[in-house]
Amino acid sequence: MAARPPxxxxxxxxxxxxxxxTLDARLDRADFSFPADSETIVGAVxxxxxxxxxxxxxxxxxxxxxxxxxxxxxxxRQLLNELYPVFEAERQSRSSGVFGxxxxxxxx
Length: 108
Prior knowledge:
Layout: H1 20-29, E1 36-37, H2 38-44, E2 49-51, E3 58-60, H3 61-68, E4 72-73, H4 76-94, H5 98-105
């Protein structure tokens, strides 16, 4: 008996993206430019439910932008900077249960 050789690919391991990383990739594929208002951004992004944690929980992009209190964004960086606290607050509010607290203690 022999062990199988490792696959002959250079593929990177799969990773889970959520929050700003996911939205950044979607913005890169969207057909609009900054400066832009929230309606333009939401209309141009293909999938507007943005995952904010590794479990795949999502928040609609329109709701997240609304929570920033800003309707007009001069740059993608401004949009992402203002959305970061929204995603983080949502992630923390969903993990405040007993299981979420236990999961946060585990190293994996």
